[in-house]
């Protein structure tokens, strides 16, 4: 996402949640390693919810140095050193081409650095590796929204929710898209309500719901 909340803050124009700025982090997408193995296995991903958000656990076998490069790249991205982080992630994807997480992180990093086309390309590649990855669809939706392709953004968020109905970040992004960009109050209200039910501690959700109802005359 990238409207009304970035790094868990609220702006006057949009709300947004992104993998590298919330508890839903690909930092948490653990890349399990077997030191003795230099071969990459097909990834198995599992979404897990915790107090902070979600973790996507990806079980793969990679060399220790590849995992170290990946972890260093994530640290660089956290520090907003996107050029260096992207360069390191590219090395990881060369060494472990079948691992999904680095491609998703690349998509996020490219998006953050302003290269939306490369970001979309990286996320699509991640989905070729794992067509059932809700984070990749959610991030892809955010980049499509930034490019102004709202229909593609909606389809991406809906696919994320089809795969993981509890994935409330995509739920909020879809609500925002329908509310601010598509002028679809029914879709916005339904998804804000679902988000509020999933995240009852978010006090802003009640304000958004009230705002939609007022504008829609409900």
Structure characterization notes:
By secondary structure, this protein is mainly alpha-helical. 58% of the residues lie in helices and 6% in strands. It is built from 9 helices and 2 strands, in the order ββααααααααα. It has helices at 64-78, 82-95, 100-113, 116-129, 134-147, 150-163, 168-181, 185-198, 204-216, and strands at residues 44-50, 53-59. Strands 1-2 form a two-stranded antiparallel sheet. β1 and β2 (53-59) form a beta hairpin. α2 packs antiparallel against α3 (100-113) and α3 runs antiparallel to α4 (116-129). The longest helix is centred in the N-terminal third of the chain and has 15 residues, at 64-78. The protein is elongated and about 60 Å long. The model is unreliable at 1-43 (pLDDT under 50).
What's the order of the H and E elements?
EEHHHHHHHHH
Please report which band the strand proportion falls in: under 5%, 5-15%, 15-25%, 25-35%, 35-45% or over 45%: 5-15%
Strand order of the largest sheet: 1-2
Low-pLDDT stretches: 1-43
Number of helices: 9
Distance between the termini: 27 Å
Query: In this structure, how is the largest beta sheet organized?
Result: 2 strands, antiparallel
Q: What's the alpha carbon Rg, rounded to whole Å?
A: 17 Å
Structural class category: mainly alpha
Q: Tally the beta strands.
A: 2
Summarize model confidence as the mean pLDDT. 79
- Choose one word for the global shape: elongated
Share of helical residues? 55-70%
């Amino acid at each position: 996402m990238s409207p009304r909340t970035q790094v868990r803050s609220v702006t006057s124009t949009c709300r947004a949640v992104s993998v590298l700025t919330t508890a839903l982090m690909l930092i948490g997408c653990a890349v399990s390693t077997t030191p003795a193995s230099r071969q990459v296995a097909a990834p198995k991903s599992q979404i897990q919810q915790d107090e902070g958000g979600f973790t996507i656990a990806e079980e793969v076998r990679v060399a220790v140095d590849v995992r170290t490069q990946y972890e260093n790249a994530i640290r660089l991205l956290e520090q907003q050193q996107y050029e260096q982080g992207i360069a390191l992630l590219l090395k990881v994807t060369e060494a472990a081409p079948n691992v999904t997480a680095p491609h998703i992180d690349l998509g996020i990093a490219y998006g953050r650095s302003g290269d939306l086309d490369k970001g979309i390309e990286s996320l699509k590649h991640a989905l070729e590796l794992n067509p059932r990855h809700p984070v990749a669809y959610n991030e892809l939706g955010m980049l499509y929204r930034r490019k102004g392709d709202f229909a593609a953004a909606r389809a991406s968020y809906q696919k994320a929710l089809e795969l993981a109905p509890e994935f409330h970040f995509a739920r909020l992004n879809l609500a925002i898209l329908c509310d601010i960009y598509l002028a679809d109050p029914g879709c916005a209200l339904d998804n804000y309500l679902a988000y509020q039910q999933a995240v009852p501690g978010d006090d802003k959700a009640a304000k958004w719901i009230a705002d939609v109802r007022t504008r829609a005359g409900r």
